[in-house]
Structure formats: C-alpha cells, structure tokens
Amino acid sequence: MGDKEEDVKIEASWKEALKDEFGQEYFKTLREFVKGEYQHAIVYPAPKNIFRAFELCPFDKVEVVILGQDPYHGASQANGLCFAVSEGVPLPPSLQNIFKELATDIGPVKNKTGDLERWAKQGVLLLNATLTVHARTAGSHQGKGWEEFTDAVIRKLSEERENLVFILWGNYAKQKVSAVDRAKHLVLESAHPSPFSAANGFFGSKPFSKTNEYLVEHNKKPIDWL
C-alpha cells in the first residue's frame, strides 16, 4: 500500500476521487496494520490485487456495484473481486448460485470461469467491504478501517455519479449501502447467494435482467453477464 498516502497504488481516477481518505488517521492506521499482516502472516488476496476491483473499473466507468463482505480466505481463491475466484479455481457455493440465478434470469452462462474480470471491465465494481483477510480466518480484518474506506467509495459514487445500479445481497450489504441516494440510483436487494439463504429470495430475484433494463432505460449499454 506504500509508505505514505501518495504511494497508495490505486487507479488514477479513484486516487483523485478518494484523495481525502488517504491522509486520514484511520487510513494511516489501516495501512500500517495491513503492511504488518502481510509481513508476518498469510493474507489474501496477493498485495497486487488488493485494489484490483478499482484497477479494472475506473471511477467514471462504474455502472453497477455488487457488494461483498470479505475476500475468500482459502488458498488461491481471493483475487480482488468480490465473489470471484482466480482462473482454474473451483467455484465456491455462492458463486455457483450466482451463476444458477444468472442462467434462469437471462440464459445459459457461456463463460463458466470464476474470475469475473469480464464483468468488471464492463463497469461492474465488484467491491468487498473489507479488502484483505487473514488466511483461513473469515472476518479477521474487519473493524480495522477498510469499512470506512469502502463507505467513502459508495458515498462518492452516490454523490457524483448518476443512474448507477447497486446490487445488495444479504443484510450486511443492505446496511452498508444505506447512504445511497435512491432518488437517482437503482437499488436491488435480495437474500445472499450463500447456500444458507439463496432459497429465501435470492433465487428468482432477477438482478441481472433488472439491471440491464434500468441501464437501457437511461441510455446506457447493458452488461453482457453471460
């Protein structure tokens, strides 16, 4: 993450949009904590992928935000995009359910790989609320400052962009995005795609087709989800 705020290696448009965050006390503390964790423990994702969601989806290109909670904490899984896994890694249950819903909502999924880079490059910000995690310990980097940082991301998008779609799966995501201005953005809420809750309202929620309908209504290009 660099030794001082100017060194935070994040895509240029995001660096500008979030410049007020990097000098704040909470971010300095967070940076030191994360640096220490990478030096002394196994932490995911790889350091170069911490800000990958931002690299692939610049501030002014965002059209859709999908919010996750924590990176995957198993070996080789987390790749900097929420719900995604690297090429060749077996699909985790939540991602399997996302693809199931996508198939019933829009049609057969052509691209079965779990690295959702193809979505990110079309303007889907795949944002975890916490951007790092200690190996094999879910939630281990919660409450260290990442949430404040990602709250700022959501706030900036809500304030400065128009007609975005925020896709919120599960109660955590719904609380996280309470600050979004629903008068100028579409907010789609449902149960989480996890096997524990998918049958309680995630399946049948049609987030992908609803997103595309809204984008087209506002003269934007639909996302090729398949």
In brief:
With 226 residues, this protein is α/β, with parallel strands linked by helices. The protein contains 9 helices and 6 strands, in the order H-H-H-E-H-E-H-H-E-E-H-E-H-E-H. Helices cover 35% and strands 11% of the residues.
Task: Describe this entry's structure for a reader.
This protein is an alpha/beta fold. It has one domain (5-217): Uracil-DNA glycosylase-like domain (Uracil-DNA Glycosylase, subunit E), CATH 3.40.470. It has helices spanning 12-17, 19-22, 25-40, 52-56, 93-105, 117-120, 146-160, 171-176, 207-217; strands spanning 43-44, 64-68, 124-128, 133-134, 165-169, 186-190. Strands 3-2-5-6 form a four-stranded parallel β-sheet. The protein is globular and about 45 Å long.
Layout of secondary structure:
Blueprint lengths: L11 H6 L1 H4 L2 H16 L2 E2 L7 H5 L7 E5 L24 H13 L11 H4 L3 E5 L4 E2 L11 H15 L4 E5 L1 H6 L9 E5 L16 H11 L9
Parallel strand pairs: 2-3, 2-5, 5-6
Antiparallel strand pairs: 1-4
